[in-house]
């Protein structure tokens, strides 16, 4: 008989799987980092820096204030623990997943991702690859600055250089050694980025690779529909469904129904169902808990849309809005900006969700204070926009006075 889960149970399972029951360490270490990464599996990368870079935020939400050099060490120093690739979208993933991405790399190599013209002009990619081999970690700008500007011959310009680098990266012929202070990728040969045991690991069959990616998605989700599992590593449904069937046959995934969900769901056999989740965290728009918007709505009753690309006059909640997790519920959302010059964490707007508990303003004020300290900001400024702004401002002022 198929097990039935209430939405509350599914929510607790999902939050536990994502690491929101893990005890926070006073001083997070690389061991803490590894534990958090095992929960999220990937860390989405995004260039928006209005508050903090996207890949730093899920770690903060789970670990609390931590030294961001932990992530730099994990990504750029030996022994590398994570590497950037198109794992979700652009994302850091554990280095051991590189062999499981080789089939994806091969498809990019054949069809050329968004830069298919480069594939048909092989001299561009070949010359770029030779330059990277000669120079070591480089950005597109590094290569472009030293190349001829003339277009009399087939030439090279910045655009073609960047396209070639991205094509080679997608195809697995280059890897990302790190990013510079302008957040530009520094490309290098995979043998100078990846640990030897990863570089020389055998390539699993495509079926085995799909099963491993779905397995990791299932562990990170705890409970999920096929669509949720498909989205985690941005897989095709034709690859996901056979992998789910194989994991069900092996007893790793258990078919379940979830209250209010119209589609079948799957519970990972090792997923925990805690009696309660006592979390308090601000979640990045790119956090795995909320990045699949339909799942967020089904689990939390929280309709969430990122409005960065919406014209300002048409935004409902703000530019860079973070959901506020309290207990096992999303109880509020705040539009945040780090004013680094003024050393202030700006709350551009604050909104309460229906049914938010009375302690929401006080808890949110404490969480904002902790985030401000982590970001090295000395004050919090709450602007009078949103139905939670007045109560939140009062709590922030009270804490500052105390």
Characteristics:
single chain; 402 residues; alpha+beta; Arc Repressor Mutant, subunit A; Aminopeptidase; 3 domains; 5-stranded mixed β-sheet; 4-stranded mixed β-sheet
Describe the fold and architecture.
With 402 residues, this protein is of the alpha+beta class. The protein folds into three domains: 3-95 and 203-268, no CATH class; 112-194, Arc Repressor Mutant, subunit A, CATH 1.10.10; 305-401, 3-Layer(aba) Sandwich (Aminopeptidase). It contains 16 helices and 14 strands. The chain has helices at 7-17, 30-40, 57-63, 69-76, 102-111, 116-120, 122-135, 140-145, 158-170, 196-199, 206-221, 226-232, 237-249, 293-300, 360-375, 389-401, and strands spanning 3-5, 43-44, 82-86, 90-94, 175-179, 185-188, 223-225, 253-258, 265-268, 279-282, 321-327, 329-339, 344-352, 379-382. Strand 5 (175-179) and strand 6 (185-188) form a beta hairpin. Helix 2 (30-40) packs across helix 3, helix 12 (226-232) packs across helix 13 and helix 15 packs across helix 16 (389-401). The radius of gyration is 23 Å and the shape is globular.
């Amino acid at each position: 008989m198929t097990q039935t889960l209430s939405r509350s149970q599914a929510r607790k399972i999902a939050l536990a799987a994502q690491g929101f029951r893990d005890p926070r360490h006073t001083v997070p270490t690389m061991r803490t980092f590894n534990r958090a990464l095992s929960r999220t599996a990937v860390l989405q990368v995004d260039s928006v820096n209005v508050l903090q870079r996207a890949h730093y935020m899920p770690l903060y939400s789970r670990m609390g204030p931590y030294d961001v050099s932990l992530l730099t060490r994990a990504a750029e120093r030996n022994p590398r623990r994570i590497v950037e690739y198109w794992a979700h979208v652009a994302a850091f993933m554990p280095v051991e997943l590189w062999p499981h991405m080789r089939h994806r790399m091969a498809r990019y190599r054949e069809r050329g991702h968004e830069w298919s013209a480069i594939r048909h002009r092989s001299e561009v990619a070949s010359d770029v690859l030779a330059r990277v081999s000669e120079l070591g970690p480089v950005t597109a700008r590094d290569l472009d600055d030293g190349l001829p500007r003339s277009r009399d011959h087939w030439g090279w310009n910045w655009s073609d250089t960047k396209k070639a680098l991205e094509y080679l990266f997608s195809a697995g012929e280059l890897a990302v050694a790190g990013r510079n202070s302008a957040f530009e990728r520094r490309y290098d040969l995979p043998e100078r980025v990846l640990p030897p045991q990863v570089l020389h690991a055998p390539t699993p069959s495509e079926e085995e690779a799909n099963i491993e990616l779905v397995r990791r998605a299932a562990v990170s989700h705890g409970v999920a529909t096929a669509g949720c599992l498909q989205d985690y590593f941005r897989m095709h449904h034709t690859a996901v469904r056979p992998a789910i069937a194989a994991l069900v046959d092996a007893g790793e995934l258990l078919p379940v129904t979830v209250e209010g969900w119209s589609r079948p769901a799957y519970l990972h056999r090792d997923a925990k169902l805690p009696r309660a989740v006592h979390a308090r965290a601000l979640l990045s728009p790119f956090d795995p808990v909320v990045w699949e918007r339909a799942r967020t709505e089904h689990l939390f009753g929280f309709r969430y849309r990122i409005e960065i690309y919406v014209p300002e006059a048409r935004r409902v909640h703000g530019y860079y809005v973070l959901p506020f997790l309290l207990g096992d519920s999303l109880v509020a959302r705040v539009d945040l900006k780090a004013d680094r010059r003024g050393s202030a964490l700006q709350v551009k707007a604050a909104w309460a969700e229906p049914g938010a508990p009375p302690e929401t303003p006080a808890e949110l004020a404490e969480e904002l204070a902790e985030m401000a300290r982590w970001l090295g900001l000395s004050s919090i400024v709450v602007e009078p926009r949103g139905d939670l702004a007045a109560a939140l401002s009062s709590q922030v002022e009270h804490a500052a006075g105390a």
